[in-house]
Design goal:
There is one protein chain. By secondary structure, the chain is an alpha+beta fold. It has one domain (5-149): Thiol Ester Dehydrase, Chain A, CATH 3.10.129. The chain has four helices and six strands. Strands 1-2-4-5-6-3 form a six-stranded antiparallel β-sheet. Strand 5 and strand 6 (137-149) form a beta hairpin. It is globular.
């Protein structure tokens, strides 16, 4: 599969239905970054009338994980990926459209190359920042991914 935003959105319908039904959508993906958006709606809000933290987490994780999936496919190697740790920080109520961007494709390249050449598992920490329509950061997620040759 060639990685495009359209194909990733179709992937979420069948493989990540909770993300799809809460409005998580991939807007773009390339070798360096992945951009995912989610709009605050009734279905994804918390009792305080802002976006539920877990919905933000799904969007943030997709922005990091889709980059890894694409790069694993490009490597033509069988490599497993798993989130082994997560840290999140919330700085403002998430309302409107929130855009999560992970622009650390170069870190994934390094980790995959090390995993392939050494045959040992590698970890990489990727960050996705959630930015609202006014340009303010509402949340930031760090995902520590484990990458291992199968």
């Amino acid at each position: 599969m060639k990685f495009t935003s359209r194909k990733l959105n179709l992937f979420t319908v069948f493989n990540l239905p909770a993300a799809y039904f809460t409005g998580v959508r991939t807007k773009s993906i390339d070798a360096i970054k992945c951009v995912v958006t989610v709009k605050h709606r009734w279905i994804n809000q918390n009792p305080f009338k802002s976006m539920f933290w877990a919905v933000q987490g799904m969007a943030a994780e997709l922005s990091t994980g889709a980059l890894i999936m694409m790069k694993i496919q490009e490597s033509q190697k069988k490599i497993s990926m798993l989130v082994i740790q997560n840290n999140a920080r919330f700085t403002k109520k998430a309302k409107g459209i929130i855009t999560f961007t992970c622009d650390q494709g170069h870190l994934i390249d390094e980790a995959l190359q090390n995993a392939i050449t050494s045959g040992k598992g590698q970890t990489v920490v990727l960050t996705a920042k959630g930015i609202d329509q006014t340009g303010d950061e509402v949340s930031s997620f760090d995902f520590e991914w484990s990458l291992k040759l199968k």
